Amino acid sequence: MEQEITTAEESLLREIDGRRRYPVVCFELRSSQEPALRSVALRNVHMETGRETMEEVKTRAALLQSLEEKGYIRLRYGLFVTVASDYAIYPASSLFAMLRELVEEGKQREGFLFDAAGINRGRAELTEAGRAILIEKG
After folding, report:
1. Strand ranges of the sheet holding 73-77, from the earlier edge strand across to the other edge
2. pLDDT digits (tens, 9 = 90+) for 74-133
3. CB 30 within 8 A of CB 12
4. Quick check: 138 pLDDT over 90?
5. Residue 108 DSSP code
6. How many Å apart are CA 13 and CA 17, to the nearest integer?
7. How many other CB atoms are found less than 10 A from the CB of residue 47?
8. Continuous segment of H or E residues that includes residue 12
9. DSSP type of residue 87
């Protein structure tokens, strides 16, 4: 059953469709003492410049999440092969710098396990339903 999409969702679907690859990342807190211990600080991040505000990133992340829930895109993380240039802006972004600062502050507290900021690379891909709704919408 086809679900309605907003103008903003349709615009984002067209943006994803128009790209060869559409990188997304999760900003994570990690522990060098417990490698399996990770906490997602910011999910479904896509940036164009690295200077986006938190509000801009969260708005786009919410759209990505909604499109995935509706079955129009698939968000895949933990990719074995990625194109490094697709992800170069993320570690240099102002938001990732804020996460690194948070980690540094946390290191000053006894028992704080998250001593590293990390990036989990992923990508957004249109599903068949996503392609179909774009064709339908013209």
Report:
1. 38-45, 23-30, 116-126, 73-77
2. 999 987 788 999 999 999 999 999 999 999 998 898 888 899 999 999 999 999 999 999
3. no
4. no
5. T
6. 6
7. 21
8. helix 7-17
9. G
